[in-house]
């Protein structure tokens, strides 16, 4: 059987990894797939660089539409990134009857509904294992491996840049700005790190996983997104003393009969959990299913060849299924298109979680009583209290840090309580509030 | 579309879990699969118990052959276990044109080649996600998710009983016999625990993963198998002091141009590795691929519903592919049947690994020199030495434990060196040798 012909749109880091791995392991991949998979055409604005990567046997063009127009090409791999031209090209590829493999989480998290509908109508596949957690086959696990389960929640460390920064902050006691510079110097953070450090990249990925896990449309615009730029080294240390690590967690949770929580924010998690020990740029996703219990999926979440591993897994899947009846394929979002439920993403005020609070207060009798009273009035119960002086004792002899861990509470109630607490004369600085998840 | 009809052979722990989860999540599973999946007939010798589990709407029979003979049943789920009657029934089901889903690692590790060939000839599928690591979708990850990779090695904690015992030994300083009794009391070990504690169960699973990872036939009879019954609490403590944990690891490694290592034995692994922190009855498999690097897959390795999760994932896969062209399905061992390579499993003497040695020696000058000379003569280089007196100092004032960590060496060379070391007059007891893997 002739090799299936593939066209590549964009040959940067992931594209060159895909080309190289596919060539290096072509024999092994063919032994698995039963059919060769060949990249025959590459579109990239930098044709000279593209030519250097692919050598003389592959056609290189500057215009992506030449790839889409090529009738021999059955699968188009989109590795351009972003929402703009990538969206247009993916829709054009679908319209031309091509299957699409993409690593573009931003595109699918924002325009997924439109793209999946177009693909469904045309009877082609859109595969996106590489869009979440690099080489970890987490999309396949959610779509197929755990398909028996009613997924209850999932929580992931799905952004390597922020996890690297948080690891550095904890290990070396660094402040955020210093750790960010270190990450940039080592290539773990981009010159403009906004998407990573503000949690947007993690939210794109959490949005996709949430849709697959719960059978709902992608709803990135409803996600609550909070990055790590406001995290202080002091809170990481206090968390440590209380037996917790702070991670940027992407979470989605089913709330029976109410909706779905979808949120990205710094989160205290118990240090003894395996996922709390995922360090540096590594990724991990924890999935809680009603039958299987908890499973953890760990590996490199980015990089040329780890991401290529996921792109090629999709190419093999699509190759196997290309000749099959569309109704027997695994649907894009794991649920049959007609079976997606329009469950709402709950606003952050309706989220239920537990909290870490740090209050800089006057060190005088009665303050703790005032604070706990306000929390009790709001129906928030306290799990643990830690009182510590920080910094130079001489300088701040009359100030202290009051750390409070709460039990589960409604975010709206917490907001109201925080507004009241902030008004107390004994509270000397803006209150720090970090969400906490026990993950069990 | 009418629900696909399934027959169950054996309704014990996993069978009842499968029945219950399938019924409980039937709507969600149908939304995913696009077609209902229905258990319509159950064969079990204890028909009364079976009837209690499945209720009045499912046909219950004592004779498994009635299930196989039922023309409406497209998938037979074999949950009887063992090599005997299960083998006959699986082969008969295949001959009758039924797809087979099984959790029977023993059967496939020993008779897999015969069974997969029969299925191939008949054009039916044999799916066995539940045979390895319970609910963790590791078979799917190896067959599909990591398909781009040349797998270099895999290492798994794939027997919950022994991992529970080892966790207890380490946590509480218990001896093996005491920890085993505790495990039996809590239901983590069977009355006859031989298959688990002697490493046979882990070897069945390692054999299956090895075949899928490397595209070789199942070769259980060539696996090296060593259990945990000889492990002393002292070695677990010494390992801890050196920064290692002892786990029963199932390993398989590609040795380019030479063959494949396939072995199960107690293994020192660095405590800082995530997999070293897999405690209690949990399972985890670490896979090293050339493109993706290391991925870890963690979860419950046994139990009614976790295993049912895997059985049902297979049912959904088979349901989706039942109408497809056999040549486009993922083959049983992930590689196309004609593309399996007859690579040999290397005998244990040709395995390359590093070692932990404990020698009970006379506490006198010159002993360390004698020991290191013999190791050097065998070409074995030393990584670390630890010398500790144990027990009551008064009683054993003239004895000491000499702990040696070596670099990588050929097992055959180590055997020869150990034979010489054992002859030294200064060596007072049988030498303890435990293999060590850095897993990086």
Automatic annotation (TrEMBL), chains A, B:
Pfam families reported for this sequence: ACT (PF01842), Homoserine_dh (PF00742), NAD_binding_3 (PF03447)
Annotated InterPro entries: ACT-like_dom_sf, ACT_dom, Asp/hSer_DH_NAD-bd, HDH, HDH_cat, HDH_CS, NAD(P)-bd_dom_sf
Keyword set, alphabetical order: Amino-acid biosynthesis, Methionine biosynthesis, NADP, Oxidoreductase, Threonine biosynthesis
Pathway annotation: Amino-acid biosynthesis; L-threonine biosynthesis; L-threonine from L-aspartate: step 3/5; Amino-acid biosynthesis; L-methionine biosynthesis via de novo pathway; L-homoserine from L-aspartate: step 3/3
Binding site for NADP(+): 9-16
Enzyme Commission numbers on file: 1.1.1.3
NCBIfam families with a match to the protein in the record: PRK06349.1 (NF004976)
Protein name: Homoserine dehydrogenase
Native source organism of the sequence: Ottowia cancrivicina
């Amino acid at each position: 059987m002739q090799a299936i012909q593939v066209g590549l749109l964009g040959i940067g880091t992931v594209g060159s990894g895909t080309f190289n791995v596919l060539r290096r392991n072509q024999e092994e991949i063919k032994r698995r797939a039963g059919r060769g998979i060949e990249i025959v055409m590459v579109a990239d604005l930098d044709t000279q660089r593209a030519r250097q990567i692919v050598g003389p046997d592959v056609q290189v063009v500057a215009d992506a539409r030449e790839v889409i127009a090529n009738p021999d090409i059955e699968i188009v791999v989109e590795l351009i990134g972003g929402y703009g031209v990538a969206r247009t090209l993916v829709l054009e590829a679908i319209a031309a009857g091509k299957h699409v493999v993409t690593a573009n989480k931003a595109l699918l998290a924002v325009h997924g509904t439109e793209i999946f509908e177009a693909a469904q109508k045309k009877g082609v596949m859109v595969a996106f294992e590489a869009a979440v957690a690099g080489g970890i086959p987490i999309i396949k696990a959610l779509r197929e491996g755990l398909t028996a389960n009613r997924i209850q929640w999932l929580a992931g460390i799905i952004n390597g840049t922020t996890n690297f920064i948080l690891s550095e902050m904890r290990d070396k006691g660094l402040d955020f700005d210093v750790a960010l510079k270190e990450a940039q110097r080592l290539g773990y953070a981009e010159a403009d790190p906004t998407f990573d450090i503000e949690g947007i990249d993690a939210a794109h990925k959490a949005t996709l996983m949430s849709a697959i896990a719960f059978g709902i449309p992608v709803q990135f615009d409803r996600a609550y997104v909070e990055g790590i730029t406001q995290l202080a080294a002091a809170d990481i240390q206090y968390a440590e003393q209380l037996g917790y690590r702070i991670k940027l967690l992407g979470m989605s949770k089913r709330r029976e009969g109410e909706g779905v929580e979808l949120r990205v924010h710094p989160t205290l998690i118990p240090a003894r959990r395996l996922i709390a020990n995922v360090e540096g740029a590594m990724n991990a996703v924890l999935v809680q299913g009603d039958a299987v219990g908890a499973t953890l999926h760990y590996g490199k979440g980015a990089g040329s060849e780890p991401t290529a591993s996921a792109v090629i897994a999709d190419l093999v899947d699509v190759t196997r299924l290309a000749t099959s009846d569309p109704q027997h394929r695994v649907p894009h979002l794991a649920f049959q298109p007609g079976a997606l439920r329009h469950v709402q993403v709950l606003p952050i005020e309706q989220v239920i979680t537990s909290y870490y609070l740090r209050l800089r207060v006057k060190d005088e009798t009665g303050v703790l009583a005032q604070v706990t009273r306000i929390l009790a009035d709001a129906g928030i119960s306290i799990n643990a209290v830690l009182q510590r002086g920080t910094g130079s004792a001489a300088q701040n002899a009359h100030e202290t840090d009051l750390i409070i861990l709460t039990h589960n509470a409604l975010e709206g109630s917490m907001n109201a309580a925080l507004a009241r607490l902030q008004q107390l004369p004994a509270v000397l600085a803006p209150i720090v509030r970090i969400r906490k998840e026990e993950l069990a």
